[in-house]
Specification:
30% strand; alpha+beta; Acetyltransferase (GNAT) family protein; Aminopeptidase; 6 helices
Amino acid sequence: MADSHPLLRYFLDASDGRFPAPDGAVTRLPPLPDGHECAVAFTGHAVVATALTAAQVAAEKPDGYGGAMAPDFLRALAGPDGDIGVLDATLVGRGTGGAAALATLTGADDHPRVAYARARRANVQVYGDERGLVTLAEGIAGRPELSIELHPQTAHGRGSGRSLIRAALSLVPRGEPVFAAVSPGNARSLRAFLAAGFVPVGSEVLIRPGRAS
């Protein structure tokens, strides 16, 4: 933890039910070490990890009541040539440990889910079975993060996603937090994570900045 990005503490505190004061403020932190930046919203408070100075952030007039997620602010954060990711709900669950319920999956390097994870996360590990695929990695600020994707032939709407998520939690030590970033519009995935015991703690947007020197 001593060398971790300060945003990690916000996520870990949120996983234990400790949140920033809902004062409408925006906290500015340094950019993420991999070149990305981000905006994270909690209830009534936002945290922005960016190379912009605190004065430059304040000049855009964001706030902790949703303003830090507004398109105009995110574009100012990214710069004219930057890439703005999608708005995701930030969820947290707890590992169940014990015997691993999924095997390591090889030969999946070309899978879109794996490619997506490796472009944004570190130390990506891939697992899976007949239901689908799971990635477990170090996400924003080094937090443990998982994602899933069901195989096209897997029957949807019958608890397959929920059961795959629960199997993935066996890969995380018992009681340890693990995060997931889920698009609110992906209702099927969101319902599966909630049914598997995940709870929402905020929202986030990941940014690859592109500013003039």
